Amino acid sequence: MAEAALELIDVTFRHKISSPKFLNPWNKRQGPGVFSLNLTLPKGEILGLVGPNGAGKTTLLRLLAGVIPLDSGTIRLNGDGLNESPEAIDYLLRCNVGHMPEQVRWNGSESVLETMMLFAEMREGDVDSKKLLDLVGLSSKLNDGLDTLSQGMRQRLSLAVSLMGSPKILLLDEPFNGLDPVAAKSVEKMVKQLAENGVSIIISSHHVAGMADFVDRLALIHKGQIVAEGKISEIEQDLGLSNRIEIAGEGEMPDFGKLLHKKSELISSTNTSKKWKAMVLQPDSKLMSRILHNGHIINFWQPKAPDIVEMLCNATGLKIEEIGMEIDPVSMLPLRNRGEEE
Q: Does the model's pTM come out above 0.90?
């Protein structure tokens, strides 16, 4: 593996939730966050951080960007432990890490260039604002006011600000939100070029689809913990989600009990009076021929890529109803009991 640009060792941060008491109305208790998290980001790698809303993705990125403090654990940049430095950890992270938040409300009459120059004044060293705006495709909007920008243009402006100081680690929180397909491909191409130049990148998303050909590795986060990590193909293999196909056709449902190879398995099937659909695990190369030979009509078949819900269910052993999409503080507590007082 390439040299590590960033290492997290037992990193923990928990939000403080108001819990007033009679003699202490300002009392707070520990709430959700990230728990004893371990992660390594090699130089020049693109890591996809994937999880449902409320899983801890944004909290982790804010922690790495120096926006919120570290409760416990160790963070290393290029092999150097930040805990051992006389300077504050959050300050060192802000100096070395570029951060693009999920949503920045760019409002006001200031122009795009004026806004960039204002942020440039806060950075150490020279910043070529026009060059950065050209890089993200905003060179024609230099004198346009912030209020006139579309959501996609505001995303590009956020990306330009995150690239100030030529950071070697870049954190992108849902960077494709609000971008049309053409703009998204442009950003994807730029991210790949940055990685080729040695920049290490973490991209958070709640979608797995579209990441297979884009990221080098995937980290699946749930309840503030990494529950699966590696290449997407490796995670699929480990979780039993690889080598599946969807088949659909017309007429009578095929008798898969007789048509499937011994190593194959019918995972699911639906059937109406006119149409049928099935998902098969580990199909052999002659399955389609056998279905057609038995007089059935196939409309389409395609490999079945796992979605985030399937990955979470298989990685945690929970059912869809237990995982759910409604996030509350109780559901965000650690997966395993760490013996802490809640």
A: no
